[in-house]
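Students often ask why we bother predicting the structure of a whole assembly rather than each chain alone. The short answer is interfaces. A chain on its own may look different once its partners are present, and contacts between molecules only exist in the joint model. In this exercise we take two input lines together and write out one structure for the complete complex. Read the inputs first and try to guess which parts will touch.
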Amino acid sequence: MNGAVASDDRGLAYGDGLFETLRVSAAGDTPLWPRHRARLLDGAARLGIPVDGAALERCRADALAGDTGAGVLKLTLTRGPGGRGYLPPDDPTPTLFARRGGLPPWTAAQREQGVQLGVCDTPLGLDPLAGCKHLNRLPQVLGRREVAAAGWDEGLMLDEWRRPVEATAMNLFAVFGHTLWTPSLERAGVAGVARAWLLERAAADGWCIDVRMRPLSHLRAADGVFLSNAVVGVLPVRKLAQWVWPVPEPVRRFQRDLDHLFQ
Amino acid sequence: MNGAVASDDRGLAYGDGLFETLRVSAAGDTPLWPRHRARLLDGAARLGIPVDGAALERCRADALAGDTGAGVLKLTLTRGPGGRGYLPPDDPTPTLFARRGGLPPWTAAQREQGVQLGVCDTPLGLDPLAGCKHLNRLPQVLGRREVAAAGWDEGLMLDEWRRPVEATAMNLFAVFGHTLWTPSLERAGVAGVARAWLLERAAADGWCIDVRMRPLSHLRAADGVFLSNAVVGVLPVRKLAQWVWPVPEPVRRFQRDLDHLFQ
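Now the answer. The structure tokens for the assembled complex follow.
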């Protein structure tokens, strides 16, 4: 499972592939798996990588068959080896593998009181595969280095018009009265499965959903700001530069709902 | 040399690395090596990957020590395994390896009479690492698939304002009287070593050098259009949609100069 990949694999050569990072519950379940699988199949179709759902099921099941316990399961799918330069082979043999890992080190205090965000200088430009969780992640690597250098907990990444797209590894949300806002990710960003789950849940609960690109200043008047991903769940944001937000009850409820799902 | 890479290598996980593709002469020389090495070191510095020139020299020398003969030598440098998600490890152990390959299958007729270009739909968005030959190459993979589907020889990739940046695997040039034009690659594209060599050569020969972004229509009035890279040298362009260009003497001279270097 934690083996090696051929040095001419196109995942390594060009980032020609996709990945998914799943939260594994203490009981060994992966509750958001159907959404992860659907996103992976959709990305594979966009890239033209032939894979079927059964192969993904087997890969996940095999990886979970050994040691269980809460943690993270990462699936990687690439177009496999070969091709002539950038041109993929006509009949590729995709590479698919799983790796287990531990949960990210967010503390109870950070989850309770919220984290401090910064604004990364690294921009997120137009991505022809916006939404996909593909293997071209250098902007996120650069952004994450900025976060570490500045001592923030996470970093917002902006588009060329300085509109927030997402954090380096989490989607962005803000609450305004009965409206839940998140950037639209039409030009860049990863369409998170926790994001989709939260949007559906909120819509079903009667929230007004606002999915569009907004200037950074839009956040100033928010009642609460939070981040989400499928491993951490909901992480409230306490502070961004001079702006400070409380953690209002709706944000705590979203957090509890996802935590409950992950139990 | 043609081995395997750990499945948690950051080159595979995020495209967190760089590559160089060198032309190897029949005598086993790599005439543009100092430029390749300089670009690789520059990219490594921008990414924060610790590597020294001596390690690159050894890797190249070892790869050329065995079978020689004309062909291609590809060097890949990644940040190596590890890290916590996108955050690189503090003290990375880079992965560096070489692979030999054959020359691309351009025919004598294509090199003599020129090739047919198309215009790819896949855009090249803002790249925070513009100029670097990094491992995030999904736009080029998508573009190259368009070229194959349409039956072109190569494809021009445009920015969001439909200005040509480069072809999928080659830089773009055009000749207008005594002026040699090439796109400026400030926001996207790979700063080719053959491109740099040609620009210096042309400037030394008294050409007026015009390095800036121009609309696609700028090409219409060109005396001649050509592509370059460090493996193929110069490839004249004969046709793009309804536009047809001859192969003027200056383009043949640039081609001969680079072919001479590669002998």
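Check your guess against this: Residues 10-101 of chain A form a domain with the D-amino Acid Aminotransferase; Chain A, domain 1 fold (CATH 3.30.470.10).
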